[in-house]
Amino acid sequence: MDLSILKQKSEQLGRMLETLHEAIEKYEREKRRLRDGVVHDDSDVRTCQDSVIQRFEYTIDGLWKCLRLHLINVDGVVLEGKGPKGIVRAACLYKAISEAEAEQLLEMIEMRNQTSHLYKEEVASQVALAAVQGYPLLAAVYRRLSTNVA
């Protein structure tokens, strides 16, 4: 069992979550400024939304890869040919995450997969909302995983 790679990836995931959190805070701040009439142009909101989406993409990717390494190195699970959704299902099966968490993560993965359709403003808004609403779960799963590699 080589926990050094899992520890390294877990630390990277922690940094990803920090940058996602910062982007979410800035996005929410810019939306408030627009709503309150402090600014009248939504270009800063769109820029911040794009930042949230980009950070959400790589955070979701980092999370499922950490789950994969956790299953292999901590739980001793043999995984072959499993993508993000299969890894989340396996993590639920082996009790690394709950069923409710798995359902939410699968929804977030689906939203992450929608990012190829960001030329549609409605899709971009939905993905950004999924990032904002899903952040607490991502952070909670990260904290749980990181305690196993400390």
Provide structural commentary.
It is a single chain. This protein is mainly α and 150 residues long. The chain has a single domain, classed as Nucleotidyltransferases  domain 2 (Four Helix Bundle (Hemerythrin (Met), subunit A)), CATH 1.20.120.330. Helix content is 77%, strand content 0%. The chain contains five helices and no strands. Helix 3 packs antiparallel against helix 4.
Q: How far apart, in Å, are the first and last alpha carbons?
A: 14 Å
Secondary-structure-based class equals mainly alpha
Shape: elongated
Work out the count of structural domains. Answer: 1
Radius of gyration: 17 Å
Instruction: State the CATH topology.
Output: Four Helix Bundle (Hemerythrin (Met), subunit A)
β content, as a range? under 5%
Classify the helix fraction into a percent range. over 70%
Number of H/I helices? 5
Average pLDDT, to the nearest integer? 92
The largest sheet, given as strand count, sense and whether it forms a barrel, is: none
In the CATH hierarchy, the architecture is Up-down Bundle
- For the record, what is the CATH homologous superfamily label? Nucleotidyltransferases  domain 2
Summarize the structure in short:
The protein has 150 residues and is mainly alpha-helical. The chain has five helices and no strands.
